[in-house]
Backbone:
């Protein structure tokens, strides 16, 4: 397809200049899991990249007339300087991630700026690490692990990765291979459920104090590097603090524009364009509901009949049983806490935070 | 004095012979029933429920009195409210009968929405000029007295409720009925006039023949006996019993528990009687063996030997004991049908099966209430019989019935009948 790799034979290749260079060419697209792909980019001018594991690139993708800027952490090893890789999860309704999955092919050029970011492991020999990741937050800590593997540094790493299901464990086989070779790498996978792999041999669920105590008994002696959806990181922050990890030993990825799309793990960060499947069980109807639309509005637009009146959470006419899923509800006294506790909600003032099933 | 002509009910009131049961028509006629609802259930204080019927904010229960439907609820501030169950739009009922949880009161017809205080909060498609303040739900005069809820549907409620209030607050304080828990409730519909239901409750002449369970703990002598008809042995026992009463009452009162009878039965608007009664046998509670059914005593009670504080109103009877209380509310449904709603109360933290035995708690009054329903149905059927003729009340054991009849006729006349 006409990509010229003459530069790969370079002897004294130029170094990519974060201040001046911007044109990247996609050289590979790789399917990691059912909805995650890795995209590998090289410099159009054949320049070599120097970055630290844990850093990210800011891309300007031509998704619309104005383009869309997005940050993605580098997942590849810094020891491979001729190209870098980012790993992106497809998100229903996710504008950029969908565009990438649907359009990015080898040979396509995009603008990129980087490396950027300070989510970098302490360069002190013998530092014990806990790499803690949720969903597609795995990318920077994967880069760190590949870095340590490639550098042949003695390492003491617990790699703890949480995902929705075993099928969502990104880099699962590669990590297993690395763990078989790296003496100091201990792997812990924690899927929330066993969907897709009934014979999952380990524990399932969300990270908890109990789980971390068992999985990482020496957690208090480790530097924790965490990346994942905001609620995941919030939970990790409080749990590790409670288990004795000093604040100074807890590092989390927090680049502002970075979006980690993980509906199952994420109940707060809601990227633009995101939708959720809302099922009305009795009417046997399912609607795609944008995250910023109330369930009642979506129901009306989708011709699903719900009793309603005030439309602002006061009268309680639309009160419904929420069979599964979670919502952000801003009511005005139309429902009691004990009704909420019993699984009721008001569709007129609730926006979906996940896929929902409603008993209507 | 009156702005209406004496009705033909007046003739029935006139016909009542001193010391005798009421003329049949007063028990059986529909026009009398209508008058009774008006006089005794709209213009007097009646007991309709308990604070602990609605323990938490948002709890609501509907009580229907004649054509009037009331919503008893606890609002967001934890205050009890009693509101008319009539939407201010076109009058639709807001809530169905029974208990429910509400966040707002929403009329199912056109979703007019009211705060739990009764204020109209939202009325769709009525224009901005609708004066919400003029369309609040109508509230009802009510008093929570020691945790019992009395309402008066009239705008001029009788003031002598103050005597009941004063007496009851003091006597019920240790039982903390306000914070008790309703362990069980039954609704029994008796095929009889409400006055027959009340009369039946005001004498224990029938007890020994009909209430084997109740007689274990209840002393029928308490409500009178004819000394002449007792054997010398029984009379000696009766005299001993009343000597014991004097002694017990003095001891209870010395310990700070008011016990002597307080009566306001005739020449008054609000009809009540209260007294601490001795419980027979083991002396603790109205159960099959007169021992307590709940090991967790009511409220701040620390003793099981404080007898049975019984209380009558004209539409209720109550027994407050150390371990539990029984509250019965009487609501007429028609001339010949009467609802008896009985609630069994225990300490709010008492756990069934652990702290109290459900069967032991409820069996005596379930049996007694069923037996009474039969007796009232028999009475009413008899009153409908052309052969019925008012008979004499016992001057020993039915004096309270005579007082009730006198009060009934006085109150009817006071309201223009």
Residues:
């Amino acid at each position: 397809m006409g990509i010229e790799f003459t530069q790969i034979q370079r002897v004294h290749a130029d170094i990519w200049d974060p201040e001046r260079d911007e044109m990247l060419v996609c050289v590979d697209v790789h399917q990691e899991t059912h909805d995650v792909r890795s995209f590998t980019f090289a410099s159009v001018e054949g320049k070599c990249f120097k970055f630290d594991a844990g850093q990210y690139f800011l891309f300007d993708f031509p998704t619309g007339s104005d383009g869309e800027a997005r940050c993605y952490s580098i997942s590849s090893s810094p020891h491979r300087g001729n190209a870098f890789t980012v790993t992106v999860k497809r998100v229903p309704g996710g504008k950029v991630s969908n565009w990438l999955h649907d359009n990015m092919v080898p040979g396509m050029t995009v603008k990129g700026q980087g490396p950027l970011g300070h989510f970098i492991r302490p360069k002190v020999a013998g530092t014990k690490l806990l790499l803690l990741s949720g969903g597609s937050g795995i990318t920077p800590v994967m880069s760190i692990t590949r870095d340590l593997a490639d550098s042949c540094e003695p390492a003491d790493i617990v790699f703890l990765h949480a995902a929705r299901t075993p099928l969502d464990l990104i880099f699962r086989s590669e990590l297993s291979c690395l763990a078989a070779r790296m003496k100091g790498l201990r792997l812990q996978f924690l899927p929330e459920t066993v969907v897709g792999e009934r014979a999952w041999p380990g524990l399932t669920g969300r990270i908890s104090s109990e789980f971390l105590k068992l999985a990482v008994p020496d957690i208090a002696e480790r530097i924790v590097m965490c990346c994942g959806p905001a609620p995941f990181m919030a939970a990790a922050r409080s749990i590790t603090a409670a288990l004795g990890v000093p604040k100074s030993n807890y590092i989390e990825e927090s680049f502002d524009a970075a979006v980690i799309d993980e509906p199952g793990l994420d109940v707060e960060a809601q990227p633009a364009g995101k939708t959720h499947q809302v099922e009305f069980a009795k009417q046997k109807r399912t609607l795609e509901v944008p995250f910023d639309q109330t369930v009642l509005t979506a129901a009306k637009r989708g011709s699903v009949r719900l009793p309603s009146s005030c439309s602002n959470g006061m009268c309680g006419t639309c009160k419904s049983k929420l069979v599964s899923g979670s919502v952000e509800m801003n009511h005005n006294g139309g429902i009691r806490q004990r009704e909420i506790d019993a699984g009721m909600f008001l569709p007129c003032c609730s926006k979906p935070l996940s896929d929902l099933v409603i008993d209507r | 004095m009156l702005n209406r002509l004496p009705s033909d009910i007046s003739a029935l009131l006139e016909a009542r012979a001193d010391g005798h049961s009421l003329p049949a028509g007063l028990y059986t006629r529909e026009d009398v029933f209508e008058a009774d609802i008006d006089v005794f259930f709209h213009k007097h204080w009646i007991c309709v429920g308990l604070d602990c019927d609605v323990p938490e904010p948002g709890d609501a229960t509907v009580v229907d009195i004649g054509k009037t439907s009331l919503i008893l609820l606890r609002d967001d501030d934890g205050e009890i409210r009693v509101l008319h169950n009539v939407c201010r739009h076109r009058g639709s009922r807001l809530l169905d009968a029974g208990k429910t949880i509400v966040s707002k009161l929403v009329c199912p017809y056109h979703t007019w929405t009211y705060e739990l205080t009764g204020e109209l909060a939202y009325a769709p498609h009525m224009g901005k000029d609708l004066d919400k303040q003029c369309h609040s739900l109508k509230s009802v005069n009510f008093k929570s007295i020691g945790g019992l809820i009395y309402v008066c549907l009239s705008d001029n409620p009788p003031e002598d409720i103050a005597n009941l209030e004063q007496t009851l607050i003091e006597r019920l304080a240790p039982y903390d009925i306000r914070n008790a828990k309703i362990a069980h409730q039954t609704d029994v519909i008796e095929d009889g006039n409400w006055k027959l239901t009340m009369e039946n409750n005001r004498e224990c002449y029938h007890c020994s023949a009909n209430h084997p369970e109740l007689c274990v703990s209840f002393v029928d002598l308490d409500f009178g006996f004819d000394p002449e008809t007792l054997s010398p042995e029984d009379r000696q026992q009766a005299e001993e019993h009343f000597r014991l009463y004097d002694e017990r009452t003095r001891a209870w009162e010395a310990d700070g528990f008011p016990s002597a009878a307080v009566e306001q039965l005739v020449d008054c608007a609000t009809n009540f009687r209260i007294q601490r009664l001795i419980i027979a046998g083991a002396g603790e509670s109205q159960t099959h063996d007169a021992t307590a059914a709940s090991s967790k005593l009511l409220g701040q009670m620390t003793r099981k030997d404080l007898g049975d504080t019984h209380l009558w109103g004209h539409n209720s009877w109550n027994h407050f004991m150390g371990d539990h209380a029984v509250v019965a509310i009487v609501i007429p449904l028609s001339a010949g049908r009467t609802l008896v709603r009985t609630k069994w109360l225990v300490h709010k933290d008492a756990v069934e099966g652990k702290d109290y035995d459900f069967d032991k708690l409820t069996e005596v009054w379930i049996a007694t209430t069923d037996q009474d329903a039969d007796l009232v149905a028999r009475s009413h059927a008899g009153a409908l019989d052309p052969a019925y003729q008012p008979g004499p009340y016992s001057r020993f054991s039915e004096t309270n019935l005579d007082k009730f009849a006198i009060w009934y006729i006085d109150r009817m006349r006071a309201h223009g009948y």
DSSP finds seven helices and 18 strands in chain A. The first strand of chain A starts at residue 23 and ends at 33.
